[in-house]
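Allow me, if you will, to draw on your knowledge of protein folds for a short while. I am sending you one protein, given as its amino acid sequence and as whole-number tokens for its backbone shapes. Kindly check, if you would, that the fold set down in the tokens agrees with what the sequence suggests. The record follows directly beneath this note:
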Amino acid sequence: MAKKKANKPGGNTIALNKKARFEYHIEETFEAGLALAGWEVKSLRAGKAQLTDTYILIKDGEAWLLGSHITPLNTASTHVLADPTRTRKLLLHRKEIAKIFSRTQDKGHTCVPLKLYWKKNLVKCELALVEGKKLHDKRATEKQRDWNRQKARIMRENN
């Protein structure tokens, strides 16, 4: 029996938070599970998720994903009242939650989601402990990205 491949280009990634890599210095990453409703899983299979302006809140020893937007499908959420921006629980080990909580208490540090992806049949969220970039760091990142693009263009033209 042959294994079934992901039918979307890009493999198992559902949603990326591209803004996070530009806005923050990533210090450490974690993998967390997500507690989801049935209609949310169906929407994620259709790729209807957004992670912009999303962040992680640690409250009462539990981690929560705030601000994520999962658009409900018309066919999947007919019998329930679907809230696309509801707060979703992140499934992490107690030690990981304690580490994230202690690091986010430092000034300038926070925890943001980087991406949502499939791991076998489960939805996982990649979290990162981050420190905010200064304006000059953002400019340097943009300059480096432009140079890499220009370098690739020159190499393509010469070959």
About this structure: Residues 3-9 have pLDDT under 50 and may be disordered. The longest strand covers residues 24-34. The radius of gyration is 18 Å.
